[in-house]
Amino acid sequence: MPVGVQPALALAPEIAGCALRLVQNASLEISSLEAGEFAEAREFLRQGQRIYVSHLPRQTWDQTIDICARIASAGLDPIPHIPVRLLSDEADLRAVLGAAFDAGVREPLLLAGDYAQPRGKLGNVLATLQGDALPACGFRRVSFAGHPEGHPAVAARVIQQAQVDKWRRASELGLQTTFVTQFFFAASPFTQWACELRSAGVGARLVAGLAGPAGITKLLRLARRCGVGPSLRALTSRPSAMLSLLADHDPDALVRELALDWQRFTGLFDGIHLFSLGGFLRTASWLRSYAP
After folding, report:
1. Are 85 and 112 in contact (CB under 8 A)?
2. Residue 194: other Cβ atoms inside 10 A
């Protein structure tokens, strides 16, 4: 068992079952840089598990779709990131969606992408949803990015309204919607974000993004680049982090915190997602060790 993993059965009885279910049903993320780890990691993954496929700068659509095809052929559920600012127009969108569907994809994650200028007319996700490309290409599900601690380049009120608008438009298109959040290190910003969306009537699946096991130095660098907010203090205030930046972090404590909230607030959120910041194989192994 990896160092630092605390099996859910060792937790307090009132949250052990919740923690187990969250971990057993967690989705993961893989990048093209980690695609070579997929075959070895397969033994740790459950049939039908949701695997998000990131789209890195300079990565081609063919590369993304090839990874998705490998995941689908292994009996898993690939969900590719589609940064819409890289698309020229709706015809371009339909071409990418059609190729993905043919490769076994049944749900894409649409996001704007961190690109200063859009390549064409699709400057944001809501603009992409104005047409009917998703249902026309056979999709009945869609994921969006969630930002419980905001975004460094967009005002909080703009993000909040955009999330509600995307859910409403996706619902009009007959799509089941999931919001997967940026990773964070304390549950309270996520819980508040989820409460605000539920109060606004949003019925989407809300999934908490967690950083998988990784070195603290790497997590700090990525968290600052990705705009992780006040919850970053929960990482840097850990005694092990203060003693050595060479220490490792795993999401065990945050899983327990979220499990308690999941039990206390029925229907507030629907699951967790792990970003494989320390490697896909390591993250998949950690999940299976936590919840065999």
Report:
1. yes
2. 25
Angle at 112 between CA 110 and CA 118, to 5 degrees: 130
21: three-class secondary structure by DSSP: helix
Kindly give the interhelix angle for 187-199 and 156-172, rounded to the nearest 10 degrees.
50
- The reported pTM is 0.90
* 3-state SS track over 201-245: CCCCEEEEEEECCEEHHHHHHHHHHHCCCCCHHHHHCCHHHHHCC
Residue 185 amino acid letter: F
The answer to whether 121 and 129 have CB atoms below 8 angstroms apart is: no
Task: Give 244-264 pLDDT, tens digit per residue.
Answer: 544 678 899 899 999 999 999
Per-residue tokens: 42: 């397969």
Residues 6+ apart with CB under 8 A from 280: 28, 29, 30, 31, 34, 37, 38, 41
Q: Within 10 Å of residue 109's Cβ, how many Cβ atoms?
A: 22
Domains and CATH numbers, the chain: 8-290 (3.20.20.220)
What's the token pair of residue 224? 């600052």
Rounded Cα gap, residues 286 and 23, in angstroms: 10
